[in-house]
Amino acid sequence: MQLEKIFHSFGLSASLAEMATVVLVMLAIAVVFWFAVGKKRLHSSVMNIYLSFTIVQVLPSDLIGTNKNLPLLIFLILMVVLTFMGKYTFDIGLSGSGLAYWQIFLMSFLEIGAIFSILAYFLGDKELLKYVSKEALFYFTSPWARFAWLSLPLLFLIYINKSND
Question: pTM of this prediction?
Answer without folding.
Answer: 0.82
